[in-house]
Write a structure and sequence with these properties.
Helix Hairpins; five-stranded mixed beta sheet; single chain; D-amino Acid Aminotransferase, Chain A, domain 1; globular; binds 2-(butylsulfanyl)adenosine; OB fold (Dihydrolipoamide Acetyltransferase, E2P); 25 helices; about 700 residues
C-alpha cells in the first residue's frame, strides 16, 4: 500500500477496530474475537505506523507503552481535592451516620448507591478535547503524582473518548490488582528472590509508581471508575447512578456490582450479602461504600475536613487469625510514652501479612494475661493497626513469660529501668497507665515531634514526613521544631551529596515559609502538648489570643473552661513551664511564626454582630467545632446567656441556660434550625 490517503484510512480503520475489541475485552469482559485475530490487527497497525510515522498519534492503541522511563514523577495539583471517606464499623455506626444526614439535609428519605470498597489506589484521570491528558495519584488530596505514562498502560483506561464527551472532565476511580494477578505477581517475586507484597493495595501502588512504564505494563492492573470529578462543556446527569451509566457510555469501566438502594434497610441487605460473598469476588474489598444518589443532596451536605458527609465506608467485619507472640517490643512515642507492641511470627490474615500488632499498655496486657511466647488471636479491621485480642491458653507450654515493662527496659549497667532509645530515666505520672521517657531531647521523641509539627492537621508542611524528620534530626540540622524556620540559613548543608536535590530543597523551604500563616488552633496542636488534640486546640484558640496568652495563663483560668479538666490543665501548665519549650517558643516568635486568633472578621460576614450560647449536646458536631463554625461566619460565642446574647442554641438535654434565655426573651434555635443557619451561610465546601 503506497497511496497515503489509503494508508491513513486503513490506519484509522484498524485503530477503531482495535479500540472496539479492547473495550469488549478489558472493559466489558466479553471479547468477540480470538487473541490471534486481535494480534494480527495490532501487527498490521504497528507495521503501517512504522512505515508512515507521520500518521502516528499518541492515542493510537500501539502507544500505550511508548514512553521512556522517568527519574521522578511530576506533581499534579488537583483542581478539586480528592476526598477520603469516614468509616462505619457496625450497624449502629451506619445508623448514626444516617440519622445525622437526615437531620442535616431535611427529613425526606434518601436513595443510595452501594459499591464495593476496593483495596487499591485512588487515581484521577483528566480528559481534554477527547484525549487522556493526565493521570494522577491522590497524594495528600490536594496534590498528587503525575503517573500518566503508567496509567496509559492499563488497558481498561480509555486513551480517548467519544466526540459527544464533555470538552474537559475528570473521572476518579480505584486502580487495583485482581486477586489472581496479585498471587501470580507474588509467586514470581518470590522466585526471583524479591520480597512478596503484603497486600493488593501495596502491590497496586508499587506497580503504578514504577519509574519505567514498561514495568507497570507487565502488571495485570485494572480500574473501576467510581466518580465524576468535574465536567465542562456538557450537562451531566443529576444522580450518581446515572452518572455512572453515562461514564459507562463514554467507555469507562464501571463495577457491575454497584446497586441502587432505595432505603437504609436495603443498604444493610447489600452489606450483608457481601459480608457472606466477598471471598468470591475477583478483587479484594474491605467494605462497601454507601453514597447518596442525588448529587444535589450531596452538594447540600458537603464535607467536613477531608470526608464527605454524603458517603461512608461501611467496613466488613475484622478478620481474625492466630500466631505466636515472639516478644514484646517497646517503642517511644512523640510525647515520650513507652508503648509495648507485639512482635509476631509472621502470619497472613485476610490476605495481609502481619508481623507486629498493637498491645496498648501494660495494664491491658496483664488484664488479658498475654505472655511472651503465647499463641494469640490477632485481629485486623481494614487499615487499622492489627491488634492482639488475647492468648490461646490451651496452647501454653509453661515456657511463656509474663510481661513486666520495668523488667523489660531494665538496664543492667545503669542498674535501673531506662528508655530503650536514649537510656534516660523513665517516669510514670500518678494518674496514668503509661510510662514515659523523661528526656525531652530523646531522639525518638524529637523526630516524631518534628513529623507531627509538620503533619497535615498541624502546620501542614509538605515534604516533611517521617523519613525527612529523621534525616533532619540525625544530621543535626533540626534539633527542635523551631529550627525548621532557620533551615534556610543551612541550605548549603541540605544540598550536600546524598541529602537532597536542589528543587526538593527549594520546595521544602517554600513550604516551611508558607506554614507561617497557619491559624492559631493548628499552631497549638502542632506543638504536641500532651493530651491536646485538634479539637482541644480549637477550643484553646478561641479562648486565648496568642501563644503568650496561653503560656501565661493560670490553672484556675484553664479549668474554668467547660471542656478542660484538671489533667489537660496540668499538661498545658507543665508544657509551658519547661525551659526547652520556652526556648522553642521564643525561637518561633523571633522567626515570626506567631499565629494570632483570627482578627475580628469584617462586618459583612453573615453572623457578624450575633452572639451565640450553646446548651445541651448537639448531634452533628462537638461543641468546639460548632463554636468554630459560628466564629468562622463572624459570630461570637459565650458560655452564659446575658442580655447581649442574640441566639441560644439548645441541643438535647439543655441546662438552666434555657430557662435563663426564656426569662430574657432570647431567640432560641433547635439543632436543626441552627444547622440550617450554618449551612445556608456556609461557603460551599463540597468537594465533589
Ligand atoms: S468514593 C468522596 N468509591 O477509598 C468519595 N472510594 O477512603 C471518595 N475506594 O481514596 C471516594 N472503592 O481510593 C469511593 N467505590 C468506591 C471506592 C473508593 C475504593 C477508596 C478510594 C478512596 C478511599 C477512601
Amino acid at each position: 500500500m503506497s497511496d497515503p490517503t489509503k494508508v491513513k484510512d486503513r490506519i484509522e480503520q484498524l485503530r477503531k477496530l482495535i479500540n472496539y475489541h479492547n473495550h469488549r475485552y478489558y472493559v466489558l469482559d466479553s471479547p468477540e474475537i480470538s487473541d490471534a485475530e486481535y494480534d494480527e490487527s495490532m501487527r498490521e497497525l504497528k507495521q503501517l505506523e512504522e512505515e508512515f510515522p507521520r500518521f502516528l498519534t499518541p492515542d493510537s492503541p500501539t502507544q500505550r507503552v511508548g514512553a521512556a522511563p522517568v527519574e521522578t514523577f511530576g506533581v499534579v495539583e488537583h483542581p478539586l481535592p480528592l476526598l477520603s471517606l469516614g468509616n462505619a464499623f457496625s450497624q449502629e455506626e451506619l445508623r448514626a451516620w444516617y440519622t445525622r444526614i437526615l437531620k442535616l439535609a431535611g427529613a425526606q428519605p434518601f436513595s443510595f448507591v452501594g459499591e464495593h470498597k476496593i483495596d487499591g489506589l485512588a487515581v484521577a484521570l483528566t480528559y481534554v478535547n477527547r484525549q487522556l491528558t493526565t493521570g494522577a495519584t491522590r497524594g495528600d488530596g490536594f496534590r498528587g503524582e503525575n503517573i500518566t505514562q503508567n496509567l496509559r498502560t492499563i488497558r481498561s483506561i480509555p486513551l480517548s473518548v467519544p466526540k459527544e464527551s464533555p470538552t474537559r472532565f475528570e473521572v476518579r476511580g480505584e486502580v487495583f490488582l485482581p486477586k489472581a494477578g496479585f498471587n501470580r505477581l507474588n509467586q514470581e517475586r518470590v522466585k526471583e528472590g524479591q520480597p512478596p507484597f503484603a497486600n493488593p493495595r501495596n502491590a497496586a501502588a508499587g506497580s503504578v509508581r514504577q519509574l519505567d512504564p514498561r514495568m507497570t505494563a507487565k502488571r495485570p492492573l485494572d480500574i473501576y471508575i467510581y466518580m465524576l470529578g468535574y465536567a465542562e462543556g456538557k450537562a451531566t446527569p443529576p444522580t450518581h447512578r446515572e452518572t455512572m451509566e453515562y461514564l459507562k457510555s463514554l467507555g469507562f469501566k464501571i463495577n457491575p456490582n454497584n446497586r441502587l438502594l432505595t432505603d437504609i434497610e436495603e443498604v444493610e441487605d447489600f452489606y450483608q450479602t457481601w459480608v457472606e460473598k466477598k471471598e468470591s469476588l475477583p478483587y479484594e474489598a474491605d467494605g462497601i461504600v454507601v453514597k447518596i444518589d442525588s448529587l444535589e443532596r450531596q452538594k447540600q451536605l458537603g464535607s467536613i475536613g477531608h470526608e464527605p458527609r454524603w458517603a461512608i465506608a461501611y467496613k466488613f467485619p475484622a478478620v481474625q487469625g492466630t500466631t505466636r507472640l515472639k516478644e514484646v517490643g517497646i517503642s517511644v512515642g512523640r510525647t515520650g510514652t513507652l508503648n509495648p507492641y507485639a512482635i509476631l511470627e509472621p502470619v497472613s490474615v485476610g490476605g495481609v501479612t502481619i508481623k507486629q500488632a498493637a498491645l496498648h499498655n501494660e495494664d491491658d496486657i496483664r488484664r488479658k494475661d498475654i505472655r511472651e511466647g503465647d499463641w494469640v488471636y490477632i485481629q485486623r479491621a481494614g487499615e487499622v493497626i492489627p491488634e492482639v485480642v488475647g492468648p490461646i491458653k490451651s496452647k501454653r507450654t509453661r515456657k511463656e513469660k509474663e510481661f513486666n515493662l520495668l523488667e523489660k527496659i531494665f538496664d543492667s549497667t545503669k542498674q535501673r529501668p531506662a528508655c530503650p532509645k536514649c537510656g534516660a530515666e523513665v517516669v510514670k505520672p500518678e494518674s496514668e497507665v503509661m510510662y514515659y521517657c523523661s528526656n525531652a531531647a530523646c531522639p525518638a521523641q524529637v523526630e516524631q515531634r518534628i513529623e507531627h509539627f509538620a503533619s497535615r492537621g498541624a502546620m501542614d508542611i509538605r515534604g516533611i514526613g517521617e523519613s525527612m524528620s529523621v534525616m533532619l534530626h540525625k544530621e543535626g540540622l533540626v534539633k527542635d521544631v523551631a529550627d525548621l524556620y532557620y533551615l534556610k540559613e543551612k541550605k548549603e548543608q541540605l544540598l550536600k551529596p546524598e541529602r537532597m536535590a536542589d528543587t526538593n530543597v527549594t520546595n521544602m523551604l517554600n513550604a516551611i515559609k508558607q506554614s507561617k500563616d497557619r491559624p492559631l488552633a493548628r499552631f497549638i496542636f502542632a506543638l504536641g502538648i500532651r493530651h491536646i488534640g485538634e479539637e482541644m486546640a480549637e477550643i484553646l484558640a478561641q479562648e486565648f489570643d496568642n501563644l503568650d496568652d496561653l503560656a501565661n495563663t493560670s490553672r484556675e483560668r484553664l479549668v474554668s473552661i467547660p471542656a478542660i479538666g484538671p489533667k489537660i490543665a496540668d499538661s498545658i501548665i507543665d508544657f509551658f513551664r519547661q525551659e526547652e519549650n520556652k526556648t522553642i517558643i521564643k525561637k518561633l516568635k523571633d522567626a515570626k511564626v506567631w499565629p494570632k486568633q483570627a482578627a475580628a472578621k469584617p462586618e459583612e460576614l453573615p453572623l457578624a454582630g450575633m452572639e451565640f450560647v450553646i446548651t445541651g449536646s448537639l448531634e452533628a458536631f462537638a461543641r468546639g467545632e460548632a463554636k468554630a463554625r459560628i466564629k468562622a461566619l463572624g459570630g461570637t460565642t459565650k458560655d452564659n446567656v446575658t442580655r447581649k446574647t442574640t441566639h441560644l442554641v439548645a441541643g438535647a438535654d439543655p441546662g438552666s441556660k434555657l430557662d435563663h434565655a426564656q426569662a430574657l426573651g432570647t431567640k432560641q434555635l433547635n439543632e436543626e434550625q441552627f444547622l440550617r443557619i450554618l449551612n445556608k451561610k456556609l461557603p460551599n465546601d463540597n468537594g465533589s
